[in-house]
Every structure is written in C-alpha cells, then in structure tokens.
C-alpha cells in the first residue's frame, strides 16, 4: 500500500498534465538583437561609442594594435560564429593604416565564421580617384572596393560618397548603402533663422547635392532658399585660378554645401567671392572635415561665420579648438541604418519625409504579439465562425 500511493499520485499528475492545455507561445513583435556584434578599429572610436549607445549594445572586445615592426595586429576576444558583425572604421588619415586595419578585421571575422560582415565606412578614403583623368593613373576607389571584396565583406555602409558610381565598383553581391549626411546639416541650419537663405554649390558636380539640401530645408523646416553655383577653373589640384558665380546672393545668408573640406583653400576663396557679391553671412557645411595642412588657419582668417562638418572623421586638436568649426553627429543616422539592415527593413525610409511610407515600412502604429494556439483547444463555435468567415471572404 505504501508503494502504491506514490504510483497513484504520479499517475494522477500525469493525467492532469495531459488534460491541461499547453502553454501559449509568444512571438515578440521586435526581433532580438543578440546576434548583432559591433566592432571598431582605431580610426574613430568616439563615433563607434555613440553608435553603440544608440543601438543599446556594447562594442565587441578586440585588440587592434601594432607589432614592433609596424605591422597591424588584430585579435578578436569573443565568439562571432554565426553572428552579424558590423565594423565601424573610416579610412581617414592615416589612410593606409586605417584601410589595412579594416581589411584585416574583415578577414579575421570571415575566418572566425561570422554569418554576415558589414563594413561601416563613414568616410571612404581614395574616393576622389574615381576615374582616369590622365594616362597611366589608377582608379584607386575601384581598387579599394576590390580589396574589401577579396577580404570577404558582405555589405558596405558609407556616408556621402564623393561620387555615386563608387557603389558600382563593388560587385552585385556586395550592396552599398550611401547614407545622406546632408540631413544632419539640414536639421541644424533649418533652425538657425537664416535671412533670405541661398544654398551654393562650390562646383558644377555638387549642384545635385546642393539642390537636395535646399529641398530638405523646404520640406522639413518650411525654409524657402535660393540656389546658386560657383564655376571654378583649376591650374592643378588644390589651386583655383578663377571663380564665377551663377545666381544671386545679394543680402542673403549663404550656405556653401560640399561633401568634404580638405585644405579649405577653395572654400575660403569661394566665401570671399560670395561676400564680394553682397552676401550678408557665409556659412559652410560638409559631411567630411579632412582639414589637411593649413585648413584650420585659413578658416580662422576667412570671412566664414561658421563651418559645420559631421563627425565621420575625428578632428585634430587645432581644429577642435577652432571656434568657427562646429561638429554635428551622424551616429544616430548610422545606428538607424544598422538597425534597419539587421531587422531587414528599408534603409531609404530613414530619409523619407512621407509619414505614410515610414508607417508602411515600420508596420503601422501598433505592435502585435501573436500566440500559437493548437486547433484542438478551439471550441466548435470558433471553428464554425472561422469557416463562415472564410466562406464570406472576410478572414
């Protein structure tokens, strides 16, 4: 009898478990991001930290250093097998060092069996060498793309490539997302209260960029701005012989919009030319502040009121202390792109001013939680209702 009591109790418990319904299985509305791994090299650690904060994740543990002879040493200290890896590394000064770090990090992740590797390159070095202007010169922008592909990169995210055709230098198996850094500048200048603003392109090739900047001011901030262009004739790279203005800037606050500022010689000369044509104040916005050589000194001594750049490239100490140079962060923009890529959503929706489009990509206002319920638990009345709804094409 003593032996029979536990056996009877176990049998009764087993019967209750068979009669009780199985637990409901919840499917979260938002996918988990534990498969996302964010790493960075030494080029711009501060930007990588900001991106990690927006993504609510930690930067992966890795060593990127040098051996005594100057060779790059890369070692990843955590498991990345089957993970989606994002490597933040602009190829800015020192360009070759940062490029080598990026290539070896991609190679390391590939050999460590990462599922997908995305190179986040806020500033794409060698971008200005995008075509053969004279005989016997390389197309370096295409060669860098070939190098990254050979290392095993799966996707590239960049900010304001110097020219759009760089996306085509990568093969069809490596999609490239070229983020518009101008949206950050539009947000800043749209709230500045400019008087009779005019957006100026410093050359013919940048007219499309200036036009987009102008349209952004109108759509997002109801700021109606004019459009002008400077035609410049160069003797050699970095030196301009003559400038001609197309358009009117008289009694206007002017914004010179470009993709990058290098030595700032052309920029400062253009600002002086605009002032000579009657501009009230001259501002400048560029996605990438390279600021080589005497750039900081030229800006400080120029007629420019303010020069705004994004933080795709870290500023030198001299530029950081220059009161005329202001930095705007693109960390939120890049983090939004990374999140959308990881969740397999549209990246273009980041730049859409149509709320309906954004809702369509985001799935509307509501977040749903779905439960899997076995059909055996549904009552006959539910089956009848479901069948009639199907017959009336309402289900």
Question: Can you characterise this structure?
Answer:
- The structure is a single chain.
- This protein is of the alpha/beta class and 395 residues long.
- Helix content is 34%, strand content 23%.
- The chain has helices at residues 4-19, 45-55, 95-111, 140-151, 182-190, 207-221, 265-276, 295-301, 317-320, 331-342, 355-362, 380-391; strands spanning 25-27, 36-40, 62-66, 72-76, 84-88, 116-121, 155-159, 176-179, 198-201, 226-236, 239-246, 253-261, 281-289, 306-310, 325-328, 370-372.
- Helix 2 crosses helix 10 and helix 5 (182-190) crosses helix 6.
- The longest helix has 17 residues, at 95-111.
- The chain is globular.
- Mean pLDDT is 86; it is low at 23-32, 354-373 and 377-395.
Query: What assembly state would you assign to the polypeptide chains in this entry?
Result: single chain
In total, the number of strands is: 16
What about the largest sheet?
7 strands, mixed
Order of strands, main sheet, comes to 11-10-9-12-13-14-15
Task: Name the structural class.
Answer: alpha/beta
Rg computed from alpha carbons, rounded to a whole number of angstroms: 28 Å
Treating each run of at least 4 consecutive H or I residues as one helix, how many helices?
A: 12
Distance between the termini: 57 Å
* Mean of all residue-level pLDDT scores: 86
N-to-C series of helices and strands: HEEHEEEHEHEEHEHEEEHEHEHEHHEH
Strand content is 15-25%
